[in-house]
Structure formats: structure tokens, C-alpha cells
Write a sequence for this structure.
């Protein structure tokens, strides 16, 4: 495959990545959310792998494989397992309804392109992907602020992490492998700990609605 | 001497470690801990005296982590002087503590208090020897936090916790100001080392210089308990165990004096004319108000704490005059004032340490600090009574003891202002007479303290079971009492040493025999001379002579014992005695504009005033700084916090959206630039 083709493929995958992000915000079902996250992570893995292949950086390929394993398989399975164990309602509960969230998301995409435009990025890859990464990050933030369930907040955090990862890969071809491994481990442990916390929250409040935690304030 | 310095540090670390790790046996651990503190103090006394005597500084430098400059300690005469006070007093308090902490091992939580006691003293030593602003601040914090733990040692007592929190807040406000002062110096000189501050002091712009001056004055003033930053002092000092109170009042607040002297005379270059008057004004207010509030206290340790505020004021009067004279280029007078201030610093450490230890003994035996329920202790604990008397005479600036010498020098310094420019000529006699007033009030205050606590007959049952304290506590007090005598008898030599030290501080050289003529001290003008040594000898022989003479002339028969005249009443009861409140009543009336005393009398009767069933009497005074400055401020902060609670809904999502919105705004702000 020649570089030109791979490059346009990466470009296309970036587009799909954005769509997957929109999917997370748009889907009313928790399970669908998680699946979209898995898709998102899958696309991320592909992009990482292709960038690594294109620039002949072997450790990026390794990262891609790790992403594939961890974020598209393990973490979604953990989520599904938590949902089964808790028997929680499948619908996403939100402060702002889905159409409005989507409008906000579109605005966020504009914002991210607007703010990165003036950064005078040189390479074409980074010019395309830095705004995308910022948008993913903001989407994660949006999910965290607008959703009620603790589980969706964890999802938002993971989405933000994906955004950061994308930024690192496309801007600087990834951080040193050791650092990346550390971050992966963090994400996994984070997901597990939050899973446990969600259990605890349910134990204490008989529900994982974060709203009820207002009674904790002084 | 370097090795002695390191040995001292080592002993403090060893003592701290002993408190934590050594044997389970309380008594052995206690002894091991305190003995190493005593040894450390002894070593400190030795090398600091050597430094003071020879005038040669030594320094130690540790390389390694040097982001903020190297960790460097220099013991020059000024540091040596403070190390001497700290070490001397800590020897006495540690001896005292052997007995003091033994009877209530649980109460004073030996492990904790032993560890932090050592940490606290060590931090003080390192504060005064550190040569780098960064490490100075670290040791300063360790010192504050170490003493904080000792203040809240009785954390079951809500009063102690409250005092601790107040102390913590105030000391951090002070530290923040000092930090700001150091940072300004850093910006100017580009380094944290004191050496660099010294090198660049001449080029400080005036605005910056004045800002640093005020920050240092307020920051160190908070630690020193200068009015209006004093409110923590009368709460925190009494809450700590007595041997720690002695250290806090005797030397901890003096580290602030050390800081002020370093800033004023080492870092800030040329001294503007108006700094002296500013310091003098603040010092005079502290002197007067400190002693006036001390007069109204009935809690022995609180009384002593307020009197510390007074003495800090007196020390700063000397410093203020020194600043004034230095700005006028009158070097001999500046050196003399500075000598007076340093001398009083040392004296105050001695007699306030002694008084706190004696108060601790009283507390140890009677378990109450309330003067209204004490009385007649001189018969039960004669040695403690004698020690307290020595301290009281010294603090009241009466000859033949040490307080007299340094206060005389402060008077001379104030009166020497009459030779200055017109404004100073007008104010300095006023200041001198106000200091005289403060001295008289201090005497009244300690007549009251001694009379009510030790004379008369017992006012409550707590006194009945009291007896003399154990030997270790007696020896601790004896060390400080002897120090009080020695500091008076050795006045000419001490003035010589401190004079040389002050001269080097202002960067001049002292001619020998400028302030001393064999056994006499003399003012720089040579007009007034006094010899504390001869006064002491004369007074001592007079008293001794009178004692022996009466014995010889009249024999034992001269003493006849009979019942006191009881006005024909059936018997004398202790309620007929003067009370502490009653004793201070005249002054409460004279100074009622300041105290704004409030009294409340509640009477209950059954329909007729002759059938009275209950009476309640309450009298209290207003602490104007607490009520008119600090309470409004704290109320305002509480109100603002209450309002700020509204944005704290407890919804995680809301907090997240605060972050979200901030992030977006910052992004937009970032690209606009």
C-alpha cells in the first residue's frame, strides 16, 4: 500500500471516529453507549496502528494492539458485567435531552476546530487530528457533566482519555512506550476501581444515581 | 565548633527517636528522651558561648539538592546569641520536664510530646542558624507545627483545640507575609541565600524596601505576639504543657526578633528615618496593652502570656530606637539601643522561663491555674515561691536582678532621643515615661500574682493537698533562677559582648569600654553610670546584714507568734482576703476606657430582698482587638463562606460543569492572545 492511500484511510477513519463519538452522545441505551465506545476505541487502535505503520514506529503498533485488546474488549466487558450484576435500568438518564446534547456537541466540534486553527500546526496529520482529539476530549466532558448515572460518568472519563491518546499519537507519535503502558494500566485500574465504587455507591444509596450524593454536602 | 553544632543536632534527633522507638518502660524512655535534650542544650550553650566570646563565625554547607540554593548554616555571633538563649532555656525546661511529665504520663502522651518537643527545639536552632531563605521558611514551619502539636496535646479539651486552631491560622498568616517578604528579596537579588540578600541590599528600590519592611514587621510581629497580631498568644501559650509554654514564651517568640534584626540590619540596606518611629509606636502599644491585659487576668499562665507581649514590646522599643539612631547615623547610640534590646531578649528568656516553670509547679501540685482558688502556697511550696519571687522581681525591673539592667538600658536609649531632631526630642521623654508606667504596672501585676497565689490563706481545697515539687522540677527552676542572678551580676561583661555583637550587626566597630567602665555600665554620652553588680552586692549584703543583725541583737525571742486581728469576728476565713479581681479593681476603673468592663449581677429572692436565695456575679473586660477587629473579620469570612455554599450544591455534575466551562473559557482566552 502506498502512503497516499494509507493517509486518506487515516483521514476517513478520523471521520468515523467523530461519528462514533456522536454515537455515544446520541444513543439512549446504556448498552449502545458502551458499544459505541468499543467502536471508538477500535477506530483509535486502527489509526494508531496505521500511523505507526506509515512512520515505521514499531511501538505505536504495539500500542494499537494493546488498545484493541484493552479498550475494545476488556473494558466494555467490564461494563457489561457491572450492568448485569447491578441490574440497573438500561436507559441513559440525562439532565439535558439527547437532541440538545447533540446540538451542544456540534458546537463543541466548532469550538475545537476554532481554537486549534490558530495553533499553526505544521503537519497535515496533526492539523486534522488535533481538533478531533480536542473534540473527543470535550465530548467526554459533556458526557460527564450531563449524565446522571455514575457509570456514564466513567464512560465520559474514558472518552476523554481516548481524546488525549489520539492527541499524543498524532502530534508526537505517542509518548515513550513505558509511559503509555503506565497510562493503560491506569485506565484499567481506574475502570476497575470505579466499578467497585459504583457498587459501593449502590450499597450506600440503593442506586447509582449521583444526585443522591447531595446529602453528603456540609 | 562545627562538630559541636552537629552533635547538638544529633542529640535532638536521638532524643526524638528515643521518644518513639525505645523501651516500653515509660520511665526509662522518658529519662532517655529528656537526658538527650539536656545534653543537646548543654552542647549548644558551650559552642554558642565560644562563638559569642571569640566573635568568630563558622559555617556548614551541604551540597546536593540545590534548586533553591545550598543548605547552609552559619553560626555568627547573632545566631550564636539566639542559640545560647534557646539552649540555656531548653536545658532548664528539659530538667523540669523529667518530673513534670512523670506524674501524668498518659495526660502528656509521652511519645508524641517527646518527639515534637525535640523537633520543636531543633527547628528553633536551625531557624536561627539557617543561611538560606527557603530552608529558613521550612524550619520556621516545622517550628510552628511542632509547637502546634504541643499546644493541642490535651486535645480532649475543646479549649485547647480552639487555641490550637487560632494559633495555626495566625502563624500561617504570619508565615505568608514573611514568605512574601523573602520572595520580594528573591526577585531583587535572584537567589535565596542570605549572602545574596546582603550583597544586593544597597540597590533595593525604596518602594520595594518599604514593602518588605512592612511584611517583615507584620509577619514576624505575628510570631512575636505584637499587638494587634497577638490574639493567638494568650490562648496558645497556656494550653501547652508548662515546660513548653516556657520555651514558647521564652525563646520561640524571640526567633521573630531574630528575623526582624536580620531583615532590618542585614537585608534592607540604608534605613529610612520613619521606620524607627513606626516600630516604636507598635512596640509602645504592645508594651502598654500587654501589661494592662495581663493585670486583668486571673489565670496564672494567661497572665504570664500577656506579660510576654509586654516584654516583646520592650525589646522592640530598643530595636526601634536603634533603627532611628541608625537612620540618623548616630552609631554609638544605635549600638547601645540594640544592645539593650538583645539584653532584654536574653533576660526575658531567663525570667519568663523561670516564671512559667514556677507556674507549672503550682499547676502540677494544685491542678488549677485559677488564681482565685489558690493562696497560701508559700507555706506548702517554699522553694517554688522563692523562684517565682525571683522571676517576679526580675520581670518588674527591680534591682538587683537582670530585668532591671536591660530596662535601664532601654530607658537610657529612649531618653537619648532627646538629642535627636525636634520631633524625636518631643516624643522620646513621652515614650520613656510610658515605659515607666508599664514598669509600674508590671510590678503591680506581679505583686498581685505573687500575693494572691503564694500569700494569704488557701482559697480552696486544691491547695490543701499541695506539697513541694520533686527534685528535678526544683533543679529546672533553680537553673533559671541562677541565670537571672548571673545575668545581673555579669552585666558589664555581657554588655561588652552584646555591644560587640550589635556593632557588627550595624556594620560598625565598637570601641572597648564605650559602654562599660570596669564594673559600671555607662550611657554612650557618659552622663549616667550604674553598676548592677555593685547594687546587687550592696543590696545582698544589706539584706543579709539585716537578717544576721536582728538575729544577733534580738536573738530568737524577737519572733513572737500570735493570732491575726480578726475585727472581733468569730474567725478569719479565706473569703475575707483580697481577691485577684479586687486587687486589680482600681486599675480597672482608671483604665475603664480601655477595658470597658461589663458586670452582671443576678439576684434571686423569694419576694423580698431579705429572703435572698441566690446571687451570681460576673465581671469581664473587653479585649478591644478581639472584639473590634478579629470578630468582625471572622464573621465576615463566615458570611462569605455561607454565601459561597450556594454554588456547592453537592451535584457532581455541577462541579464537573464548573470545570468544563472554565476549560472552554480558558481555551477561548488562550487563542485570543
Amino acid at each position: 500500500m502506498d502512503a497516499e492511500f494509507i493517509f486518506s484511510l487515516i483521514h476517513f477513519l478520523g471521520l468515523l471516529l467523530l461519528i462514533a463519538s456522536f454515537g455515544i452522545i446520541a444513543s439512549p441505551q446504556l448498552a449502545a453507549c458502551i458499544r459505541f465506545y468499543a467502536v471508538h476505541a477500535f477506530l483509535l487502535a486502527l489509526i494508531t496502528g496505521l500511523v505507526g505503520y506509515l512512520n515505521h514506529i514499531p511501538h505505536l503498533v504495539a500500542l494499537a494492539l494493546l488498545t484493541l485488546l484493552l479498550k475494545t474488549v476488556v473494558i466494555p466487558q467490564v461494563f457489561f458485567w457491572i450492568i448485569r450484576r447491578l441490574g440497573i435500568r438500561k436507559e441513559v438518564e440525562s439532565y439535558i435531552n439527547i437532541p440538545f446534547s447533540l446540538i451542544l456537541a456540534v458546537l463543541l466540534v466548532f469550538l475545537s476546530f476554532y481554537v486549534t486553527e490558530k495553533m499553526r500546526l505544521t503537519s497535515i496529520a496533526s492539523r486534522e487530528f488535533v481538533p478531533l482529539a480536542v473534540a473527543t476530549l470535550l465530548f467526554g466532558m459533556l458526557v460527564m457533566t450531563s449524565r446522571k448515572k455514575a457509570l456514564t460518568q466513567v464512560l465520559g472519563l474514558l472518552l476523554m482519555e481516548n481524546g488525549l491518546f489520539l492527541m499524543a499519537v498524532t502530534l508526537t507519535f505517542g509518548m515513550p512506550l513505558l509511559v503509555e503502558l503506565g497510562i493503560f494500566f491506569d485506565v484499567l485500574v481506574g475502570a476497575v476501581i470505579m466499578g467497585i465504587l459504583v457498587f459501593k455507591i449502590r450499597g450506600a444509596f440503593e442506586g447509582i444515581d449521583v444526585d443522591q450524593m447531595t446529602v453528603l454536602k456540609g | 565548633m562545627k562538630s559541636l553544632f552537629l552533635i547538638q543536632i544529633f542529640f535532638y534527633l536521638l532524643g526524638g527517636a528515643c521518644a518513639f522507638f525505645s523501651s516500653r518502660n515509660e520511665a526509662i524512655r522518658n529519662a532517655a528522651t529528656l537526658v538527650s535534650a539536656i545534653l543537646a542544650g548543654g552542647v549548644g550553650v558551650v559552642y554558642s558561648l565560644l562563638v559569642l566570646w571569640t566573635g568568630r563565625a563558622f559555617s556548614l554547607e551541604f551540597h546536593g539538592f540545590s534548586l533553591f540554593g545550598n543548605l547552609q548554616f552559619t553560626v555568627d555571633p547573632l545566631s550564636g546569641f539566639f542559640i545560647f538563649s534557646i539552649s540555656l532555656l531548653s536545658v532548664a525546661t528539659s530538667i523540669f520536664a523529667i518530673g513534670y511529665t512523670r506524674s501524668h504520663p498518659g495526660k502528656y502522651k509521652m511519645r508524641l510530646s517527646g518527639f515534637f518537643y525535640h523537633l520543636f527545639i531543633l527547628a528553633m536552632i536551625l531557624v536561627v542558624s539557617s543561611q538560606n531563605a527557603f530552608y529558613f521558611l521550612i524550619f520556621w514551619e516545622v517550628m510552628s507545627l511542632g509547637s502546634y502539636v504541643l499546644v493541642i496535646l490535651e486535645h480532649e479539651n475543646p479549649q485547647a483545640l480552639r487555641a490550637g486552631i487560632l494559633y495555626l491560622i495566625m502563624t500561617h498568616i504570619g508565615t505568608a507575609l514573611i514568605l512574601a517578604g523573602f520572595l520580594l528579596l528573591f526577585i531583587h537579588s535572584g537567589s535565596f541565600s542570605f549572602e545574596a540578600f546582603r550583597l544586593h541590599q544597597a540597590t533595593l528600590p525604596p518602594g520595594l524596601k518599604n514593602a518588605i519592611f512592612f511584611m517583615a514587621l507584620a509577619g514576624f510581629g505575628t510570631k512575636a505576639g505584637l499587638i494587634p497580631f497577638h490574639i493567638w498568644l494568650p490562648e496558645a501559650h497556656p494550653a501547652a504543657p508548662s515546660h513548653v509554654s516556657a520555651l514558647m514564651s521564652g525563646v520561640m517568640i524571640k526567633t521573630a526578633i531574630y528575623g526582624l534584626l536580620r531583615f532590618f540590619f542585614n537585608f534592607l540596606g540604608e534605613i529610612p528615618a520613619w521606620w524607627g518611629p513606626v516600630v516604636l509606636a507598635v512596640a509602645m502599644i504592645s508594651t502598654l496593652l500587654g501589661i494592662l491585659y495581663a493585670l486583668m487576668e486571673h489565670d496564672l499562665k494567661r497572665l504570664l502570656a500577656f506579660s510576654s507581649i509586654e516584654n516583646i514590646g520592650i525589646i522592640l522599643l530598643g530595636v526601634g530606637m536603634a533603627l532611628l539612631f541608625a537612620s540618623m547615623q548616630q552609631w554609638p547610640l544605635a549600638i547601645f539601643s540594640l544592645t539593650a534590646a538583645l539584653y532584654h531578649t536574653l533576660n526575658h528568656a531567663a525570667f519568663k522561663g523561670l516564671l512559667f516553670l514556677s507556674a507549672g509547679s503550682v499547676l502540677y501540685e494544685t491542678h488549677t491555674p485559677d488564681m482565685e482558688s489558690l493562696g497560701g502556697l508559700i507555706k506548702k511550696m517554699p522553694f517554688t515561691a522563692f523562684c517565682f519571687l525571683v522571676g517576679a522581681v526580675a520581670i518588674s525591673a527591680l534591682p538587683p536582678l537582670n530585668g532591671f539592667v536591660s530596662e535601664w538600658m532601654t530607658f537610657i536609649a529612649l531618653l537619648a532621643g532627646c538629642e535627636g531632631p525636634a520631633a524625636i526630642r518631643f516624643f522620646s521623654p513621652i515614650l520613656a515615661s510610658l515605659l515607666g508606667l508599664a514598669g509600674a504596672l508590671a510590678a503591680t501585676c506581679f505583686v498581685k500574682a505573687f500575693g494572691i497565689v503564694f500569700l494569704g490563706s488557701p482559697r480552696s481545697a486544691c491547695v490543701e493537698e499541695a506539697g513541694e515539687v520533686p527534685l528535678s522540677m526544683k533543679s529546672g527552676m533553680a537553673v533559671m533562677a541562677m541565670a537571672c542572678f548571673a545575668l545581673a551580676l555579669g552585666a558589664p561583661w555581657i554588655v561588652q559582648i552584646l555591644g560587640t555583637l550589635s556593632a557588627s550587626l550595624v556594620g560598625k566597630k565598637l570601641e572597648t569600654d564605650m559602654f562599660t567602665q570596669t564594673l559600671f555600665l555607662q550611657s554612650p554620652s557618659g552622663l549616667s553610670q550604674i553598676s548592677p553588680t555593685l547594687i546587687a552586692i550592696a543590696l545582698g549584703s544589706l539584706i543579709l546584714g539585716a537578717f544576721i543583725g536582728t538575729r544577733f541583737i534580738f536573738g530568737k525571742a524577737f519572733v513572737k507568734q500570735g493570732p491575726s486581728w480578726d475585727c472581733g469576728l468569730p474567725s478569719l476565713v479565706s473569703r475575707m482576703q483580697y481577691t485577684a479581681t479586687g486587687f486589680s479593681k482600681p486599675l480597672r476603673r482608671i483604665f475603664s476606657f480601655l477595658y470597658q468592663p461589663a458586670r452582671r449581677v443576678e439576684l434571686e429572692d423569694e419576694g423580698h430582698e431579705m429572703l435572698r436565695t441566690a446571687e451570681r456575679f460576673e465581671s469581664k473586660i473587653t479585649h478591644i482587638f478581639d472584639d473590634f477587629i478579629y470578630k468582625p473579620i471572622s464573621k465576615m469570612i463566615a458570611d462569605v463562606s455561607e454565601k459561597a455554599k450556594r454554588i456547592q450544591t453537592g451535584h457532581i455534575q455541577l462541579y464537573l460543569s464548573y470545570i468544563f466551562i472554565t476549560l472552554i473559557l480558558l481555551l477561548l482566552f488562550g487563542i485570543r492572545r
